[in-house]
Amino acid sequence: MGSAIAANLIKAGHEVTVYNRTRAKADKLASVGAKVASTPGEAAKGDAVFTMLADDKAIESIAFDANGILAHMKPGGVHVAMSTISAALSKRLAESHAKAGQRYVAAPVLGRPDAAAAAKLFIVAAGAADAVKTVTPLFDVIGQRTFVVSEQADAANVVKLSCNFLIATVIESLGETMALTSKVGIDKHNFLDILTSTLFGAPIYKTYGNLIADEKFKPAGFAAPLGLKDVRLALAAGEELRVPLPIASLLRDRFLTLLAHGGDDLDWSAVGSLAAKDAGSV
Amino acid sequence: MGSAIAANLIKAGHEVTVYNRTRAKADKLASVGAKVASTPGEAAKGDAVFTMLADDKAIESIAFDANGILAHMKPGGVHVAMSTISAALSKRLAESHAKAGQRYVAAPVLGRPDAAAAAKLFIVAAGAADAVKTVTPLFDVIGQRTFVVSEQADAANVVKLSCNFLIATVIESLGETMALTSKVGIDKHNFLDILTSTLFGAPIYKTYGNLIADEKFKPAGFAAPLGLKDVRLALAAGEELRVPLPIASLLRDRFLTLLAHGGDDLDWSAVGSLAAKDAGSV
Amino acid sequence: MGSAIAANLIKAGHEVTVYNRTRAKADKLASVGAKVASTPGEAAKGDAVFTMLADDKAIESIAFDANGILAHMKPGGVHVAMSTISAALSKRLAESHAKAGQRYVAAPVLGRPDAAAAAKLFIVAAGAADAVKTVTPLFDVIGQRTFVVSEQADAANVVKLSCNFLIATVIESLGETMALTSKVGIDKHNFLDILTSTLFGAPIYKTYGNLIADEKFKPAGFAAPLGLKDVRLALAAGEELRVPLPIASLLRDRFLTLLAHGGDDLDWSAVGSLAAKDAGSV
Amino acid sequence: MGSAIAANLIKAGHEVTVYNRTRAKADKLASVGAKVASTPGEAAKGDAVFTMLADDKAIESIAFDANGILAHMKPGGVHVAMSTISAALSKRLAESHAKAGQRYVAAPVLGRPDAAAAAKLFIVAAGAADAVKTVTPLFDVIGQRTFVVSEQADAANVVKLSCNFLIATVIESLGETMALTSKVGIDKHNFLDILTSTLFGAPIYKTYGNLIADEKFKPAGFAAPLGLKDVRLALAAGEELRVPLPIASLLRDRFLTLLAHGGDDLDWSAVGSLAAKDAGSV
Q1: Phi and psi torsions of C24, nearest 5°
Q2: Using CB atoms, which residue from A145, A200, A250 is nearest to B197?
Q3: Does residue A8 sit in the same domain as residue A139?
Q4: What is the CATH number of the domain that holds D232?
Q5: Whole-structure pTM value
Q6: Domain residue limits at C232
Q7: Which of A48, D5, D135, D276 could be a cystine partner for D281, CB 3.0 to 4.6 Å?
Q8: Which of A151, A179, A208 lies at the terminal end of a domain, its last residue?
Q9: Per residue in B91-133, pLDDT tens?
Q10: With a CB-CB cutoff of 8 Å, which residues 201-260 of chain C face chain B?
Q11: Contacts C245 to D, Cβ<8 Å
């Protein structure tokens, strides 16, 4: 994801310095015009810094370490955090950057790597109005549409986590109904065809329905442990805000069952196979 | 629903005799060319009999009573049962009609009254191939597409119940995520706009999302007790087939909470308001 | 159960006529002084009739058939229904007997066959005060204590179903905590010993905890399908009364999973093995 | 709790130095013979250090700060951590003390303050055998029985969290069955009397059943936020070990509902009132 975004920024004429723990990944971008930094801080000296990392831990180290971006960003610089991280960390980043005289925009994205490459991402952005305004032209060259949802940065993260929670719900509910209909003899693809031809025409039903019907969970487009992580972060946001989320609770247990049975390298849609397993069908 | 279907059959040139417990409703169809029967049995003497009733109980009385359709259908006649009934009753009807030398097609529909009026219903049909073949031309004049799913009639009912269970899941999951995002300050319509502009473009998300965001649960397009009934019937089918359905279990409890608080005349989308209530937001 | 109860009534000097579908079972009681009837109705001509049967269906046939007890009980006779049946059927029996000038007491029991033999049952009774008073001396010779809970008969059934629901909850919660503690290396019996030596000293924890720790689910003391039946009846009572029961919903799904994997002849405590299975431990 | 434990150690002839953030609390113990320290580290110089604090955060600061106990314990000293903390923190403490040449025993307790005062606590201990052996004589003067469960310290915390999870399950299941039975007219105390006189004789059912029946949730014996904390920590242990805990998930949502409605200063048994609320009874 990060590479595709960087490439699009370069293509649009921006000067981009990149950093990756695995130097080789950064070097690839050098061939299209990026400078390569040897520390996060070194890559953070421009007007805006984009981060796209796996989880909270990765962001924490890149942000708060001595060689990290907080220590090296210039006053007024904008940190654009595109990863799906916890609302709590997003809040902490907003506060830390403010204290350092820097700015922070949470901007998680919707879309898979191919959408990133095609500059077709959807961006959910939140942060102080001036900061968002500063980076909006950059969003325009990497995504097809930006939704500005709040001046409170972590609100964007809650929206993104909610989207992933909704996708996981689609996976589980397709899993349950396919377990039911297939036990009465209906072919899973036929059932899915009825759904997507009638009321459930969204791509999400097609994509995940086919993965479940085909039981094709490898290679993982989005690995099960990341699915668990996002459901856990949605639950954590709910706990902070005191919002019970019973379907998310159920999904968390499903992901744990999947992982307890060796699902670490499966696509998260494999959660959609558990209902059939409980039904004794597989 | 029944009136619209009958009207379309008449419009296509078929001779139609109608029966309704409330005579006045049947009489309305007389003006467009229907004959009006005074008992179900009297309306059941043609080549095919369509039933469209509220629940199992209603179908049972109209089917099995002395004046009912089983007692009066001619040999080889086809009973087309379009209501959303239990898989168990559908099975019993199939067996009873077979024993009586009659035929039975389960043909529940997807679509609201306006779709019925416009002959745009989706029909999910199951039954013996010859019986389905006999009534297919009739389906063509009342719906836009027929999905034949099985030779076992009750399979169609399981598909239909699964669809309604999936809709209820969409309602609940929108309710939970709106409860979460609105507590962090996001406007419900904005959140819904993000969903439907990106991954969740299906009409079902728009329709129900707006009802939940507007908290507009009256008048009921589909009343909460019917929602509970369909979830219960999905669970009953699951119990018969030994398929655990944890989201359906959760939905059943939600519907009971709604009804316990006077929700009988609310639209079933009101289930989508309970998460916010649990979160102390309303 | 029925045999033990009848034997205690005979021992106390009562004249008892018995009926069992399997004649041989009834004949055994002849040796201790019972008369043997060849139809339920024939066994129903005394002052009180006790029924102890497997489920609603069995009671319905014995009660409502032409040879059944309703047709043959004398005016003022008392039907004492000791089975764990649905609240709905209990209500219907109360109404039917009243209409027939007979009386009805719901009196489900707590205790296993050995308690029945030792006249140590606990009896939960409900019904019109005069009817309960009439049969109280009979309760005294078969049980150790009678709890009269209501003048509305089905209230006793709701209490009994609640007790079984609570036992199933103990089973599931022991299953979950044993799955957790055993995965961190704690022996299941050691864990159980801590529980029962401290806060959870009730026999129910010892009995079911040991069955789960030993994974000894055969022969069934109380078979899993009966467990499912009782949880389903608790849920049905909840639906009638509009009381959501989320733990019962969860238990229903657990029982279905168990049965879908061939658990029909296992003790219901086998539900307590499913958490460990989900955790990948077995 | 901490004061009572310290007092019992002093009474047994041990030399005790105490520390409390609120100096006055520590001073009270001076009157019975304790020395009062002005930092945690100062109180940590003896052969064993006992900590009894509210949560992970409190333990972390007292353990890892410059004035904390890790920095000041002597080689071979034993840190006995009696609080209900996360398994993860317990593991980290074990590792940190080992690295510092110190020893660590996790020893959470079962019992309320009155049991602590009467030296009647139950202690669940885990840690290296020699360390446990060293502090066993101390356990003997503060508790009635010690259960040594593992050489892996955090196992004791998992046991303790499981116990609290089981208590919360009892609360919720009593809440659900009381909601059901009371809606059919049964008095809550009568229902509870049946339970505790028959199968559910453990004190836990009596204590919490009465609190729920009386709706007496203030003052809190154990406040709802602590209940949520412990359920969350049980879930976190389950996540680490990959053990789905569906009842715990359900309880977590219940606690959030309670807290979202102003339940912060209620006893955790108030969770047992939510089923009745969902049922529209209160």
Answers
A1: -55, -35
A2: A145
A3: yes
A4: 1.10.1040.10
A5: 0.97
A6: 158-278
A7: D276
A8: A151
A9: 999 999 999 999 999 999 999 889 999 999 999 999 999 999 9
A10: 228, 232, 235, 238-239, 242-246, 249-250, 252-254, 256-257, 259-260
A11: 176, 179-180, 275
